[in-house]
Amino acid sequence: MLQVAGVPFTEHQIRKAREAGISEIVLATSFKAELFEPYFGDGANFGISIKYAVEEVALGTGGAISNAAQFLSGTGPIAIFNGDVISGHDLVGQFNFHEAKSADVTLFLTQVEDARAFGAVELDGSGRVSAFNEKMENPPTNIVNAGCYIFNREIIEKIPFGKVVSVERETFPQLLEAGAKVFGFVDTSYWLDIGTPTALLKASKDIVFGMKKDFLALEGSVIDSGSIVSGGSVIGRKSKIGAEAEINSCVIGDGAEVGDGAKLVNCFVAADFKVPGHVIAEGNYFGF
């Protein structure tokens, strides 16, 4: 439920799914599962049906897919989002590619400058996946798994139910070995793994800049006229920015306060936390 540009990160993914014509979502949750349903409810406020698959014990990426799929009531291929990736990729195009290739599974892939931190994916001339590689010093390609998959339902049914399974290390290699039609949909649109605080802050700033704004002030926030707010900052609901404060590239949580004359750069301030006046900080996490 971490916020990115003023709303929970998951909400950005839900909006993306809805805009692609998806009508039903199952949120696979384990850690802090109780936080999701009070906010998202049944999805009526978001124009989409939302259900919840709560894991009492973490089942891994493959086990989570198998567990969540039992709650789906529709038909046809299923889109699966990793919970820590934000992208501008063409989800409708990925579905169309999946259908055109009569694929069993289609992975969204992207290109990175340095693939050493990722598992590189090799493709043949038709776009079919020929190999999955673990992280290595000299990857054979800069094309990597970008964390959005389309599965045919019969493929999901083959994932052991109730077991801990890694889709990346077990399911995908097993599908290749069995001759399944696994394809890669390469899209070089905006993509970011938000697995670190630095990346989370970047995602928030990128979305604000994408709105053609220099900062985003949410409802009820109070910003003193003598302060300076810039760099894609987000000023949370009912938060207060004091006189002559300077806020650059920061996320200020709901109800937080930044004292007079404080100067913050690339900082997170937790909800309801009070930053004293005249503090100077860069890259700090206040209240966490």
What does this entry look like structurally?
Residues 217-278 form the Glucose-1-phosphate adenylyltransferase/Bifunctional protein GlmU-like C-terminal hexapeptide domain. Residues 3-207 form the Nucleotidyl transferase domain. Pfam families: Hexapep_GlmU, NTP_transferase. This protein is α/β, with parallel strands linked by helices and 288 residues long. It folds into 2 domains: 3-193, Alpha-Beta Complex (Spore Coat Polysaccharide Biosynthesis Protein SpsA, Chain A); 200-286, 3 Solenoid (UDP N-Acetylglucosamine Acyltransferase, domain 1), CATH 2.160.10. Helix content is 23%, strand content 30%. The chain has 7 helices and 25 strands. It has helices at 9-19, 36-40, 60-69, 91-100, 153-156, 167-177, 197-210; strands spanning 3-4, 7-8, 24-29, 49-54, 78-81, 85-87, 105-111, 121-123, 129-132, 143-151, 182-186, 191-193, 215-217, 222-223, 228-230, 233-235, 240-241, 246-248, 251-252, 257-258, 263-265, 268-269, 274-275, 280-282, 285-286. Strands 13-16-19-22-25 form a 5-stranded parallel sheet, covered by helices on one side. Strands 5-10-7-11 form a 4-stranded mixed sheet. The protein has a 4-stranded parallel sheet with strand order 14-17-20-23, with no helix packed on it. The longest helix is centred in the C-terminal third of the chain and has 14 residues, at 197-210. The two termini are 15 Å apart. The model has no long low-confidence stretch (mean pLDDT 94).
